[in-house]
């Protein structure tokens, strides 16, 4: 397939691009390099430097490359920032994304696969979470992703543009070539790995009084290559819908710290801090629908293997993409 990957210079986008290229697909990465890295773009992919705010740029990229499918990763992802600068999130994650949807519809792209998020559910009542759980986001980031899912529903009805929204739980891990390098880093596993490397004086645990067995938040960490696999299956699938992607296993913040200590063999300081506003106690996916409808078969259900892949990548690229 010819696939245009918007946001292919970011973490999940770069790993997915690598996965698709390894399977013989032709890829054009379209990225404004706002948070992504030019070095993260696989050398086998074409690269177009462009921003989705510019309709003509994305329209031209699609006209030139003629993709059958488009994957959309090009969004802002920081929950905390979204609660300070909601306009930044709605403008990029909704308005700019609509330029992509419009260009897809205009140029008869068959399918768009969209990076959505468990943040669309807010504080879910039922765990594990199925797709029929009410979507009531508690931050502007989650709302922006849900809004674009709704835009896609209408583009399908009106223009026939098929869509798959993939609601990721906590993306983690790395390939041998590509990994997680955010600036600033806010995600748990890379931060704990930085503490293990001695690059941070300690790791802070945000909240120890949650209603969970050890009092810390529980998340469902899913390997980035399992996410990549789901994107390819979604492109091959001829229907539209939204699917949760997670392992169905929950890991507490404390248990992630213990896993990092055992995988790296390093000890480091742990500090217990207040809760971070807006964190649900537990987020665990029920991914039955993705398995049934898309044929998704996640390969990594062992948290040690997930953390180990991230650690190996950091050892190889100690300064991330700044090398
Ligand atoms: N945490 C700490 N200390 C830190 C960083 C995080 O204790 O220094 C805790 C958080 O409070 C949370 C857990 O570790 O309980 C995981 O936090 P992350 O920031 O790694 O991930 P989140 O679960 O907050 O968010 C992730 C993605 C979002 C997405 C969400 C959906 O980053 O984009 O999952 O589940 F919306």
Describe the structure in your own words.
The chain has 323 residues and is of the alpha/beta class. It has a domain of 212 residues: 3-Layer(aba) Sandwich (Rossmann fold), CATH 3.40.50. It is built from 10 helices and 14 strands. Strands 3-2-1-4-5-6-11 form a 7-stranded parallel sheet, sandwiched between helices. Helix 1 links the parallel strand 1 and strand 2. Helix 1 crosses helix 7, helix 4 packs parallel to helix 5 and helix 8 packs across helix 10. The radius of gyration is 19 Å and the shape is globular. The mean pLDDT is 97. The structure holds uridine-5'-diphosphate-4-deoxy-4-fluoro-alpha-D-galactose.
Fold blueprint:
Elements: E1 2-6, H1 11-22, E2 26-31, E3 46-49, H2 55-65, E4 69-72, H3 79-82, H4 86-106, E5 111-117, H5 140-159, E6 162-168, E7 170-172, H6 188-196, E8 202-206, E9 218-219, E10 221-223, H7 224-236, E11 241-245, E12 251-252, H8 253-264, E13 269-273, E14 282-283, H9 288-294, H10 303-316
Parallel strand pairs: 1-2, 1-4, 2-3, 4-5, 5-6, 6-11, 7-10, 8-13, 9-14
Antiparallel strand pairs: 9-12
This protein binds uridine-5'-diphosphate-4-deoxy-4-fluoro-alpha-D-galactose.
Uridine-5'-diphosphate-4-deoxy-4-fluoro-alpha-D-galactose binds at residues 77, 79, 117-119, 169-170, 186-188, 191, 203-206, 217, 219, 253, 276, 279, 283.
